[in-house]
Amino acid sequence: MKTTIQYDRKERAYRVLDAETGEVLSQHPQGPEGRYQAERAVIASDAPHVLPLADNLAHQYPEAVSRAHKAALLVARGAVRPNGATDVYYVASETDLPTVYLVDLPKGTCGCEDFYQGRQGEPHGAPNVDGRLVCKHVLAASFFLSQRATENRKILWPDFGDGLD
Ligand SMILES: [Zn+2]
Question: What residues have a C-beta under 5 A from ligand 1, the ion?
Fold first, then answer.
C-alpha cells in the first residue's frame, strides 16, 4: 500500500492516509513525536521489512538514530533506485526532491553534504559507525539492498539482524 501524511489543522493532528483511496489509516497528535509516529506508520505500511532494520541499527548505534529513521522513510517513499552498476544507487534527497545523490555501497560513499562533512570530521556531519560514514542515503541504499537481495549480503553493513543467515 502507498500511504501519505497530511496535517489536519482543525484536528491539529497528522493523518496517515491510503494515497489511493484517501482512507484515514491512523491519526497522531501534533508536534515532533506525533510526526515521528506518523512517519513510522508510513514505513510500517510501505516498507515493512525496513522498520526492524532501522530499529536494530538505532539500538546498536544511538548516534545514527535520526539518520536511520530518515533512511527508512526514504525507502518507504520509493526514493532509492538502482543505477545499473552493482550495488550503486540513486537516492533522492529528502528535503529537495529534484536532487539525487549517487550512493556507491561497495565504496561506502555518497555525494551529499552530510557525507562530505562527516569525511571532514565535522561534529554534525555523518557519523562514523564501525568504520563507515553513514549519511541517510547510504543507510537507505543499504536498507533497500538488504530487503531485496541475499546474494550481495557480503557488502551489507552492519549486520542488521534481519535473520537471513
Ligand atoms: Zn548522503
Answer: 110, 112, 115, 135, 137
Specify the DSSP class assigned to residue 29: E
**Å from CA of 58 to ligand 1 middle:** 17
Tens digit of each residue's pLDDT (9 = 90 or more) over 94-127? 776 679 999 999 899 999 999 999 999 999 999 9
- 60, three cell numbers: 546498536
Distance 91 CA to ligand 1 centre (A): 8
Residue 162 reports pLDDT greater than 60: no
Q: Which residues contact 129 (CB under 8 A, 6 or more apart)?
A: 61, 63, 64, 158
Measure CA 5 to chain center.
16
